[in-house]
Design a protein that fits this description.
Blueprint lengths: L8 E5 L4 H11 L3 E6 L20 H6 L4 E4 L5 H13 L2 E4 L5 H4 L4 H7 L4 E6 L14 H7 L23 H21 L4 E5 H8 L6 H5 L16 E5 L8 E5 L7 H8 L18 H12 L4 H10 L4 E3 L3 H5 L2 H5 L3 E6 L3 E6 L22 H7 L5 H8 L1
Parallel strand pairs: 1-2, 1-4, 2-3, 4-5, 5-6
Antiparallel strand pairs: 7-8, 8-9, 10-11
């Protein structure tokens, strides 16, 4: 069985998360991703969140599976020749350097397309390549602030908060994947490459567009919301046993079904409330109904609460932390937790690909060591002789 993007080759000039998350997805889908890294240093993400500098960081591991690493100094003349040859052999070049870096190295789109007219030049930038903010630097929290997501996250009356997931980084990466796939399809018709650009700020705005849509009607920015809805019963977060920091379940008892509250009360063993005044108009009895749910939830674990309500057709989710996720049987069955053997870190677990294709192989391969595949790529992809390869490496 073939892979969906088999035969597509990606030249990956990305670092940290926004770019690597994009090229990782392409690698998951079967593209040959060649990660170009600076000799002796590599992607700065290799040393993020790690105390032992001799080891590859878990941050890097989580974002760089299904890639091969080649080390090139793009300021070195002989390495520039190698880079030019790689551009000529690749379908897509992805970069997320700071504004102007690649141009200063001499690699504008005009130069790259001169090497290879079919090259797709994918650019991931904090604020884009044009506009008043285009020269500003950005990282995930900056993008989330400027993209609106912080303004709707937090407690009413409190300061804006950054959502936990790095949607400014990985959310931008996913938008980059979409653009790259569209450009490949268009190239199949035209025979020509093109430039595509995704701004981190733009991507966050896109992800937050529905959450901010009330502005269209009211002209007012949406307010930050409390963990529990003040005017809707059974909507929000409820503490569960044994009362740890993540022992909660989120319940969303909103439905067009008229019998949802009957199903809810029967599921939690409170059939006695089914025909009482309290459920005839739940919006007028929010505190009373929430008190019933609170009393039930604290006597069950979050997993038990999710199972009971889920089987009753009530939308809900246990608040799973990282340990819960890595040890979750449902996720393991769906290959969202995979076991890999890395030359540097040994055997370890990492999270897998959320995309499932019925007629395409989806395999997760270990992230590369710095420059691990340099000789292999120069030989296999570029056809260089052993002597030529040795002269470049040395």
């Amino acid at each position: 069985m073939e892979k969906a993007l088999q035969g597509i080759r990606i030249l990956d000039l990305t670092q940290y998360e926004a770019g690597p998350s994009c090229t990782q997805v392409l690698g998951w889908l079967g593209a040959d991703v060649i990660k170009v890294e600076q000799p002796g240093k590599g992607d700065p993400g290799r040393s993020v969140q790690i105390s032992d500098s001799s080891k590859t960081s878990s941050y890097f591991l989580s974002l760089n599976s299904n890639k091969r690493s080649v080390t090139l100094d793009l300021k070195n003349d002989s390495h520039k020749e190698v880079f030019r040859d790689l551009v000529n052999k690749c379908d897509v070049l992805v970069e997320n350097y700071a504004a102007g870096v690649l141009e200063r190295l001499g690699y504008s789109y005009e130069v790259l397309s001169g090497f290879n007219p079919r090259i797709i030049f994918a650019r991931i930038k904090g604020f884009g390549t044009y506009g008043p903010y285009s020269q500003y630097k950005s990282f995930d929290p900056v993008a989330q602030a400027a993209g609106g997501s912080m303004s709707i996250t937090g407690i009413p009356g409190g300061p804006p908060l950054k959502p936990g997931p790095n949607i400014g980084d990985s959310g931008t990466g996913l938008h980059g994947v979409i653009g790259i796939l569209a450009a490949i399809i268009q190239r199949n018709a035209t025979g020509k490459g093109q430039v595509l650009e995704v701004s981190m700020q733009d991507a966050v705005i896109s992800l937050a567009r529905a959450s901010m849509s009330s502005y269209i009607d009211t002209g007012e920015p949406p307010a930050r919301r409390a963990p529990r809805s003040p005017d809707r019963a059974g909507v929000g977060i409820y503490k569960c046993a044994p009362g740890g920091p993540d022992d909660y379940v989120y319940v969303l008892a909103m439905s067009q079904r008229r019998d949802i509250w009957g199903d809810f009360m029967r599921a939690i063993g409170r059939e006695d409330l089914c025909d009482t005044e309290i459920l005839k108009d739940p919006s007028k009895n929010v505190k009373e109904i929430d008190a019933v749910i609170e009393d039930w939830a604290i006597r069950n674990s979050k997993e038990e609460a999710m199972s009971i309500l889920g089987q009753a057709g009530i939308p809900c989710g246990a608040v799973l932390n990282a340990k819960d996720i890595y040890n979750n049987g449902h996720l393991q069955e769906r290959d969202m937790v995979v076991h890999l053997d890395h030359r540097d870190r040994g055997k370890f677990q990492m999270l897998g690909c959320p995309i499932k294709l019925s007629d395409s192989v989806l395999e997760i391969s270990p992230p590369p060591l710095l420059g691990e595949h340099t000789a292999e790529i120069l030989s296999e992809v570029l056809g260089y002789s052993e002597n030529h390869i040795n002269s470049i490496i040395n």
